Predict the 3D structure of the following.
Amino acid sequence: MTSLTSLKQDLQGQADPVRARHSQRFFKTGKGEYGEGDKFLGLTNPQIRTLAKKYRDLDLADLEKLLGSKIHEHRLISLFILVDQFHRANEQARRQIYDFYLKNATRVNNWDLVDSSAHKIVGWYLEDKDRAILYKLAKSKNLWEKRISIIATFWFIKNGELNDSLKIAEILLKDEHDLIHKAVGWMLRETGKKDVAILRQFLDKHVLDMPRTMLRYAIEKLPKKERKNYLSKF
């Protein structure tokens, strides 16, 4: 039995049909929704993380097969393993994982998949490198590449670098998808935790152009009176 086969059997062995049905609704898998066609086994994240540790040395060929699966937990565990491998790798291996991730970016195709991996692979790798790829992804027609572009900057924010997050937020400012509104608003909120004056400057410049959901996320940590003032401008 191969490790990949064993991993799939371990995942299947912990399947929960009731939880799977709930996840199908929660992650919007219906016709025309952002997660259309996604299938779930019904595992919790702690269960998946435990199995990711067991199979942490799975090779990229097998991880690519998992990323190509319609089963959500297959893709999620592949990303948990990739993140773990990236953190343990040398520079050469990190470049390989980074390239692999971008090659398969459209398969990182739900918000939890992006949010658990983009900053921990793409953001970390680009920490001391040119970041032009993020601006290219931000202008992509693919929802998930766009979300990767802004979530990747979370790594920079944590290290006190805010400019790329703000510039990419401007690119995505008028995007039509709610998942982009939420992601940008989240990163703006995180920016404000590092430097609230910079967040206020951004809001004062763009408040009239921002989707309401994005604004609500961005101002969540501001004082109540200030939040009401920004919302009143709509």
Remarks:
- The longest helix spans residues 72-88.
- The two ends are 60 Å apart (CA to CA).
- The CA atoms of residues 223 and 229 lie 10 Å apart.
- The mean pLDDT is 96.
